[in-house]
Amino acid sequence: MSPVRLAFIGSAKEVSPWLFHAVSRVACLEAVCGPYAESDSATHRARWSFSDLPAMLRETEPDGVIIAGPVSRRASVVKECLAARTAVLVLGNPGAPRELTRIRSLAHLVTRPVLIATPAHHSPAMQLARRLIDSEKIARPISMQLVSTWRRSVNAAGDSAIIHPDQVFEGVDLVRLLLGPLTRIHGIMHGDGVMLSVGVTDEHVPVSLAFHSGGPVESLGLDIEIRAADGACLRISRDGRLYCGNGTRVDAAHAPSLVASDPVIELGYDAMVKSFVHYITTSATGLLGHADESTIAADALLRPGRPRSLRRIHRQSNAADGRTASASFS
Fold first, then answer.
1. Do residues 279 and 272 touch, judged by C-beta distance below 8 A?
2. Does residue 137 fall inside a structural domain?
């Protein structure tokens, strides 16, 4: 069986090199399309380079594409790729929530999968935390704190927000993964590249999020702390370590070694790309996962102001999903 042929759309400078390492393990990087396609293709050993998306889709006919680039243009790029009957992986925020219903309808129509994902979602620490909560190894969560620090340029990606939309999407998506979707949220933007927000999940768990657009190297990454009703604590540190326990009792731990661990796996790129390839080879169809809930919450945070209730918006989105599914399978 020939390897799955993937193409990358965007600038390789805006994503981690570990993404391309993950692709090389399970697929063939057929082409790169973007403003620096020639140099990016040479660096990451793609077969072809293009500056024109329609030409790339027409001439290489990839099995799937990985989309980065400006968030404001991602929805249109997704629809153009789906029109060419190509599976799509969007790295982070897909754009305006209203576009997702159209993308879902088109994905069903052309029978191709669209995966909207972040590497952190697929990391071993996050997946272990999810299993611990689902199995009730940790008691009922009563609070969550998340601190996210990036040094990624917003303007270089063509977006005007102080905090990068992908950073906000990653944060709210991890809240959804671990505790469920946010149903109420309030964000406060600071001029020095910091956004603070508070929210409540559908299980009435209060959540605090802090997003920093800059900081020293040692501060980069994610720190998460979840407190349980019995006093237990689940912590995930920026180096990928997980601790779950209560006092001297340790219920679970994940401690990757800086020397022996594989960053492609620990950062989640390996599992994310493998999931995408699996959806392609098994002929999955439609918009996969829970992108709507995370996109709606991220959109609300990126327009800070008065507190916003998301419950009604989630219900409207779910109703639209039901109408789309009925129309697709009739």
1. no
2. yes
Residue 167 shares a structural domain with residue 255: yes
Global pTM value: 0.90
> Which single residue is written with the structure tokens 């039901």?
322
Q: How many residues does the chain have?
A: 330
Q: Give me the tens of pLDDT residue by residue for the chain, a chain 330 residues long.
A: 689 999 999 999 989 999 999 999 999 999 999 999 999 999 999 999 999 999 999 999 999 999 998 999 999 999 999 999 999 999 999 999 999 999 999 999 999 999 999 999 999 999 999 999 999 989 999 999 999 998 765 544 455 567 899 999 999 999 999 999 999 998 888 777 888 999 999 999 999 999 998 878 888 899 999 999 999 999 999 999 999 999 888 889 999 987 778 999 999 999 999 999 999 999 999 998 888 899 999 998 887 666 667 765 555 555 444 434 333 322
Q: Where are the alpha helices (DSSP H) in 180-310?
A: 263-266, 269-281, 291-301
Q: Distance between CA 184 and CA 201 in Å, rounded?
A: 7
Let me know if residue 281 belongs to a domain.
Answer: yes
For residue 249, CA distances in Å to 142, 200, 273 come to 19, 29, 36
Which residues 6+ apart lie within 8 Å of 144 measured at CB? 175, 178, 179, 205, 206, 207, 208, 224, 225, 226, 227
CATH number at residue 274: 3.40.50.720
Domain extent for 285: 4-119+268-289
Residue 301 lies in a domain: no
Residue 200: both structure tokens together: 């409540």
**Rg from Cα positions in the chain:** 20
Asked if the structure places residue 106 within a domain, the reply is: yes
Number of compact structural domains in the chain: 2
Residue 91 β-bridge partners:
117
